[in-house]
Design a protein that fits this description.
The chain has helices at 3-14, 63-66, and strands at residues 26-27, 36-41, 44-51, 54-61. The protein is of the alpha+beta class. The mean pLDDT is 92.
Length: 67
């Protein structure tokens, strides 16, 4: 896993910038309704939530670890 790639994505989220399509950023449903996930790398997923001025980094890991 490349930490720099993850850091860039987090910085963009903090600045409320739209992530590039390669990160596959999307809203989650079901038990994760209200949260989003993005793919830092093909099998490194970050689940997060933006509420007001706060960015909550909720979980990070492989698809198998998270779902």
């Amino acid at each position: 896993m490349k930490f720099a790639t993850g850091r860039t994505s987090i910085d963009n989220l903090l600045e409320r910038k739209e992530l590039e399509p390669k990160y596959k950023d999307h809203a989650l449903t079901g038990n994760w309704s209200g949260y989003r996930d993005c793919h830092i790398e093909p099998d490194w997923i970050l689940i997060y939530k933006i509420s007001g001025t706060h960015l909550f980094l909720v979980r990070s890991g492989s698809h198998a670890d998270l779902f």
